[in-house]
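BACKBONE GEOMETRY TOKENS:
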Amino acid sequence: QVQLVESGGDLVQPGGSLRLSCAASGFTFSSYGMSWYRQAPGKEREFVAVISRSGVTGYGYVVPGRFAISRDNVKNTVYLQMNSLTPEDTAVYYCRAEGIDYWGQGTQVTVSS
């Protein structure tokens, strides 16, 4: 069955960096676009970034120039490199395979001094 396991979340100071990982299984990873979303306390889940099967990337308006999505089709893993983090980036981060109705458990990112 489909599994998406997010990891890499942590408590980090403002201005810091983190790299999130999402290990996928149960489907043909290389055939799907992959996305990252996030959900802050009391807010709706929002789109962060997407990477197509061929590696074309796109980003939500909330993270221009600070985040970078990438994928490794050998390791069946999608990554989110996050730089210049601010407290507004505090959220649970989720990955998703485009077109598959499944969410993993997410990974908590907390940006605080």
Notes: The mean pLDDT is 95. Residues 15 and 85 are 5 Å apart (CA to CA). The two ends are 40 Å apart (CA to CA). The longest strand covers residues 18-25.
